[in-house]
Amino acid sequence: MYVKPTIALLISTYNWPEALTLCLESGLRQTVLPNEFIIADDGSGPETKSVVDRFRDETTEQFVHVWHEDKGFRLCHIRNKAIAQAKSDYIIQIDGDVILDKDFIKDHVALRKDNRFVIGSRAMLNKEFSERLLASQTLSSAEEFRRNAKNKMNAKRIPWLTPLFSSRYKNRGKYTYYAKGCNMAFWRKSIIEINGYNEDIEGWGAEDSELIARLMMLGEKKLFLKFAGIQYHIWHKFASRDREETNDAILENTIASQSFRTVNGIDKYL
Predict the structure, then answer these.
(1) What 8-state DSSP symbol labels residue 267?
(2) CA angle 133, 232, 32 (to 5 degrees)
(3) What proportions of the chain, in percent to the nearest 5, are helix, strand and coil?
(4) How many CB atoms lie within 10 A of CB 161?
(5) Distance between CA atoms of 220 and 143, rounded to whole angstroms?
(6) Burial (Cβ within 10 Å: 0-12, 13-18, ≥19) of residue 188
(7) Residue 180 has what pLDDT?
(8) d(CA 101, CA 141)
(9) CA–CA distance, 204 with 245 (Å, rounded to integer)
(10) What is the rounded distance in angstroms from the CA atom of residue 103 to the CA atom of residue 169?
(11) Which one is the CATH code of 7-264: 3.90.550.10, 3.40.50.1100, 3.30.420.10, 3.40.50.150?
């Protein structure tokens, strides 16, 4: 008998409770709700815990807050800890500074397939609208989000086109290992098999590409969620890129090794 896979929405965050509040609000407005919301918190202060507690207390949904001490940018570590605690079969991963279109999860589920992982894109909100949004703490209409997106093609939802692009878009050449960790989805069992994110990667850069490189070595294929799975990224200043060169070297070493399982991964939390 077929059993429908369960879904976790995994949301990474760090010390931005105003953005996280809007992100979670958009998560609750989904036409298809996840079985659990998992907040992967890279060492935020008590304000973020208060946000998660409020959503847990005021809704009937399952909210799990996975936190560790702030020791710098350790996104791979906290995502591994969150995935380890997930109970669901399928994980849709986003960041806590994005606003989801109401059909975001529905679109991800529509493209879900065995032995596949999914990469999406994001529409970037302009600075002025982002500041108004954060100040009001109120979600605007879908039309207003589209109007204030800088890269408007990423805000177009045309789901009947998605299957035509899924195996062709950003899938070859320099885009072979292209990934956006703020909009991707994968089977939890596959992540466990490759031992999760590579925790040798700290700071900004390469962690998502390195992960999907190993998923490909495992035998999985990439699908791109084009014209669907719309999300809007709240404007902010860029994080430090001081580890980019080191992290890119780790990615290159992984590709050269052709080993799908990282040594420094999720197994320590299972």
Answers:
(1) G
(2) 105
(3) 40, 15, 40
(4) 13
(5) 36
(6) buried
(7) 92
(8) 10
(9) 10
(10) 21
(11) 3.90.550.10
Residue-averaged pLDDT of the chain:
96
Q: Where are the domains of the chain?
A: 7-264
- pLDDT at residue 192 greater than cutoff 90: yes
How much is the pTM?
A: 0.97
Residues in contact with 270: Cβ distance below 8 Å, sequence separation at least 6, in sequence order: 84, 192
pLDDT in the model for residue 1: 64
Torsion of CA 21, 126, 118, 178, to 10 degrees: -130
What's the average model confidence in pLDDT over 92-120? 98
pLDDT of 240: 76
pLDDT value at residue 107: 99
Asked if residue 99 lies in contact with residue 129, where contact means CB atoms within 8 angstroms, the answer is no
